Amino acid sequence: MLWYLLYPLRGTTEAPNLAPDHPFRNWPARYGRYVARHVDTVLLLAVAVAGILLYPFPFLYTTDFTNSASNLPHHVWTNAQPLSTRADLEPDVIMRTVWVHGSYMRALDRDVLLGALQIQNELLGSTKDFNPRRPVPLAAITGLPNGDLTQHERDTFHVINGRTNMSWFYHSPLQYWSGDAQKIFNDKDIIGTVNARKTQSTSVNVTLRHSIVFSGKRFEDRKLVAADALVITLIHLRDSPVGRQWERKTAALAARMADRWTAYPRDGRSMPSQLYEFQFRPISFWDLTMLSLAYFLTFMYFLHSLSKLRAVKSKAGLIVTLVVQIVASVISSFTVCAVFKVDLSKIPQACFPLVVWSMSLENMFRLINAVIVTPSEDSTSSRIGQAFGETFLVSFTSVLQYLLIILGLSRVVLPGVSAFCTFAAIATLFDFFYLSTFFLSVLSVEVRRTELSEALAKSSLRHNRSSSQAPYRKSWTEALLQGKIALSTRIAGLIVTLGFILVAQWHFSQTETLLHTLGKMFRDRAKSETAPLLIDIHQARGPTSWLRLQDHETAREVIHVVKPWAHSYVARVYDPLVFVMKGSNRTPPARERSLSPAVYDFAHHQTVPLIIAIIVVVSLVRLLMNYLLWDEIAGGRSGEYGGEDEQLISIKTVNSGHALDVALMAATPDGRVVSAGLDRMIWVWNVRFLGTSYVVTSPDKSGRDPFPVLAMAIDDSSEWLVLLSSSKIWIWDLKARKWGPVVEVDLRGQKPDALFFSTRKSREARMSIVVIRRNGTMVETWPDLGQSQEYVVCKSPLSCAVPLADRADSNQATSFLTLSRRGCIHKGTTVGDVWLTEEVRLPSDESDIQAVLAVPDYSSYLVARTSSVDLVDFHSSSIIYTFRTEVIRPRTLSFFHSHPRKTQTGAKGLRSFTLVYIKADGGECVIQTYLPSVEGETISFRDDELSLTRGCSWQDASEIRRTVENPGLWASLPSGCVVGIRQKPPKQPLPQPTQPPAPGSLRRRRATPPLRPSDPSDRSDDLYEVWTMTQLEKKGAYATRPLVSDGFGDEYEAQPQDHLMISEPGPIVKVGRGSIAAAFGNTIRIITIGHESFSGGLPDEDRVNRRRRAGGSFRNKAPGHSPAKIPPGSRGF
C-alpha cells in the first residue's frame, strides 16, 4: 500500500529495485547467505525460540475462568462496552456496587470481611443463609413499598420468584460463608475457603467467580492469595423497591459508619452512571459461513499459487512447513499476549489463524518466487542470499506498514477489537521472524536437496507469469489469481485483516449500520466515562477495568437471568460506593508485578521441564537434519554451510590414482567419473565421496584386460559401463562392481564414430549396444545373447555420428544421425526388430555442413554450417529456423537450452536457447543467446505451436551475443553457463559484447554492458585459470579464478608439482548439471559452477569427450551415448 501512496512522487506502484550494494539489500543478502551456510544453527535457534514460546501456552491459558491464567477464546463474541448516552435507550437492568477495602491487598482479612458483611446487611437486610425462594406470588403484595422492606418482602421481589420490573438479585464474596458472621469468625483458613468455593453458584445460578466478587486479585500457583477489594453487586430492574432502598440507604450509611469507614464519595449519593452493553453472542450461521468462505478462498489461493510452483516437487513438505510456521506464529503470539495481559477472549478463536495465514502466504510465495528466478548455476547460499536481499525491502515494508495501520486502528476501535489488533501486530512480527529463520532454513535445505535443486534448474525464469501472446489479454480475475495484480501479492493480507477488523467492530455495534460504525471509529471513539482510579486510596484495579474483566461465562449466566431469549443486555452501571476501613495502610509496595501471575507460576514450577523439553526437541530436530542431510555431511561439503567467502567456481583435485596421463573419461549424472589412463588403469571416481573410489582394472590385477580402449560410454541409468577395444566390447557393472559379458566385435580397422546404448527393449536381453564405424556401417550387439547385427548407414566415410533419444516419444527407441565427409545426412530409426536408415534431403546446400547435434527434448537436431545453424525437425526433415552466426570453426558448435516449458495445451516452449562456438578468424568463444521478445514469455519451438504456447516465434526472438577471448578448453553446461580452462594471458582482456550482424528479422533487446573479469592471480607457477560466463538470460556475469591457488582452500587441492608436465589439458567431460571433470596429465580436476547436487538426471548431453587442442571446444552429444575417443593419431593404449 505504501507504494500506491507514493505513486504521485515515484510514478509507479512497483517496489524499488535496489542496487546490490544498497544496505537494505546487501545486509539481508549477507544474512540469507549466512542462513544457507549455517542451516543447522539457524534452524535449531528457530526451533528453540518456538519451543520456549509454545511450551508455556497450556499453562498460561485456561478454560474455566477461575484462576490466574488468561481466558482462552471460544466460539463466541463477548464484550462489555460503554454506550453513548441516549435518552431513548432504556437499560434492561441497573447495576450498583459497593467496594470494601482494608489495607492494600488485605481485603480477605477477617475484620474486613466482617465489616463488609455489616455493610451488606445494612443495605439489603439480613443475608444470613440467604434463600429468597418464596411460595407467595407477587400478586399477594399490594402497593409498592417505599420504606424499608421486610425480609419477606425483599425475598418476594427476588428474580427467582418470577421476573418482573421489580426483580432483583445480588452476588457477594460473603456468600462463600452464607452471609454468616459466625462462620467467618470461625474460619481458620479464609484463603482456602475462597479457593475451594470459587465455583459456588448463587440461587440464580450465577457462579461466584473471583473475577466478579473481588477486585485487584493476586494469584500464586493458580490460587488466589490476596485481594484488594470485596465487591458487593446489586442488579435490579427499573421499578425494583430493593434498588430504591439501596440508593436511599447508601447516603445514610456513609454518614452513620463514618467512625469506622471512609466513604467515597463522602455523601454516598453523587455517583455518576454509564450505560454498558454486555454481550455473549455465539458465533452465528452467517459468521460460520463467512469464516468458512474466507478460509476456503485463502486455501484455494494457496493451492493455486502452489500449483504454479513447478520448481517445488515436495509440495506436501511446503504445506507442512506453512502449517508449522502459522501454528508457531499464532501460539507464540498467544503466549506473548498472555504474558502482558492482553485479553483475547472477546473474539472467536477461529478468526486468529486467518490473519496470520493471509500474511504468511504473501511473504512465503514472494521468497520462493525470488529463489526460482535466481540463476540455477549459483550456489544454494548465493541463491538464498540474493532472493532474500531482493525481497527484504518489500517484505519488511509490508510488515512495517501493517504494524502502523493495525496499531493505529487499535487506538480507535473497541477494546475487544483493540486486543485483536495487538495480537495481529505481534503475530506479524513472529511470522516475519519465523520466515527469516525457520522457513528460510527449510527452503535452503530443500534447494540444496536433490528434488528441489534439480527442478529449480529446470523451472521457468518467470514462473508467475504464464506464457501468453502480446495481443492476448486475460481477465482481471485471471490476473488476480495468477498474481499479476499487486492486490494478490502485496496487500492481500492487509485487506483481509482490515476487513475483519471492520466486521468485528460492527459485530460489537450491531445496533448501528456498518457505515455508521466505520464513521464512528474515526470520529469519536466510545469513551469510557467511568470514574478513574481513586488516587488517594491507590486502588489496585479501577471499576472500568473490573467490568471489562468479566468473562463471557459470567455474561452468559447474567443474560440468562435478565433476558433469557437474548445474547446481550444493556445495564446502567453506577460507579461504586467505596468504603475504606479507617486505619488501613493503602500504600502499595514499591514494586508491583507487571506480568500475568501465571507467568510467575510457570517460571517457578516449569523452568526445569521447559529446559529439558527444549533440549529434547532440539536434539530430535538435529537428528532429523542429520538424516535428511546425511549425504551433504558425508560428502564433506562444508563450503555450503561455512565459509563467508564462498566462491562461484569451486575446484576439487583427484591426484592419487593414475601414474601416467589420463586419456579417456566418461561420467554419470550422480557424480561418478570413469577414467582410463596410459598406465593401463581404469578408475571409477565418486566425486561426492572420494573415499569410495575404486580401480576397475590395472596391470597389477590379474583378470580381464580391456586395453587398448578406443571408446567408452555409460547407459542412462548409470548402471553399465561399456569399454570398446579393437576387437571386443567389455561390460562393467557399476553397481555390483563386477564384469559383465564380453562380446566380440569386428571394427575392420576403423575407429568408432559413436558408441552408445540403445533403448530397444527385449525380453531376453538387458541391453543393446550400438557401434557406428567411420566407414559408414553400424553394428548392434546384444551382450546377454552374444548376438550382433550389422547395417549399412552411408556409402561414404563418416565425419560425425550422434544418437538421439526422442523424449517427445517415450515409445521410440534411440535413433541416430550421421554426417558423411561429402555432407550428406542420414538418420536411423527402428521399426520392429530392424534398423531403417534414410538420407535427409535438406532444401539448402549440403556442401558447407560441418556437424550435426541432437536436440532430443524437441525431436529435432542442429545442422552446423560455415556461418549459420539450421534447426531441423527430426521426423519431417524440415528446417524450423536458421540462426545466423559468425564464421564457425569446424566441430566447435555446442548448445544448451532452458528446460522445456509445457503449457496447459501440452505444447512446449523455451525460455532461452544458446549457441556456443569458436569464431574461425579470431578464435574467440561466441555465446549467442535467444530470448523471448517480451520478458516472461516463451519462444514457440515450432511456428505451428504459436497459438498453443502463446509465445513469440524465432523470428521475433531477441538475440544477445557475447564473446570471450582465449577460451582454451571449454564446455557448455546444462545448468545454463559456459566454463573453460585456459592459460593465463600476459594481460587479461575484457570480454566485449558485440553487435550481431543484421540477422534477418531478429532484433536486439538491449545493449549488453562490458563484462569485467575478476583479477587473476599473479603466481608464476600457476599457468592456468578457470573462467565462466553465467546468467546468460540476464545481463551476464563473467568470473575467473586460478586453477591452483592456496587462497581458495578447496578440498583435495594439488600443487603444480603434484601432476605430470602437460602441454595442454584434456580430455574434459560433463558431470551432473553444473560441473566438469578435466584431466591434467595424471590428475583430474572437478570444476563446479555454483551448487551441484550430483543426483539429478543429466539431459541428453555428452557424458564423454576426447582431448582437444587449446581453443577447441567440448562438442555436445546426446546423453550418455557418445564414445570417449583417443587423441588423434593414436591407436589406443
Automatic annotation (TrEMBL):
WD repeat residues: 655-688
MF term (GO), any: sterol binding
The SSD domain, residue ranges: 287-445
Region named Disordered: 981-1023, 1109-1133
Keywords assigned: Cholesterol metabolism, Cytoplasmic vesicle, Endoplasmic reticulum, Glycoprotein, Golgi apparatus, Lipid metabolism, Lipid-binding, Membrane, Repeat, Steroid metabolism, Sterol metabolism, Transmembrane, Transmembrane helix, WD repeat
GO cellular component: endoplasmic reticulum membrane; ER to Golgi transport vesicle membrane; Golgi membrane; SREBP-SCAP complex
Transmembrane segments: 42-61, 283-304, 316-342, 387-410, 416-443, 491-508, 610-630
PANTHER family xrefs: STEROL REGULATORY ELEMENT-BINDING PROTEIN CLEAVAGE-ACTIVATING PROTEIN (PTHR46378)
Known function: Escort protein required for cholesterol as well as lipid homeostasis. Regulates export of the SCAP-SREBP complex from the endoplasmic reticulum to the Golgi upon low cholesterol, thereby regulating the processing of sterol regulatory element-binding proteins (SREBPs) SREBF1/SREBP1 and SREBF2/SREBP2. At high sterol concentrations, formation of a ternary complex with INSIG (INSIG1 or INSIG2) leads to mask the ER export signal in SCAP, promoting retention of the complex in the endoplasmic reticulum.
Family affiliation: Belongs to the WD repeat SCAP family.
Identification of the protein by name: Sterol regulatory element-binding protein cleavage-activating protein
Organism per entry: Gaeumannomyces tritici (strain R3-111a-1)
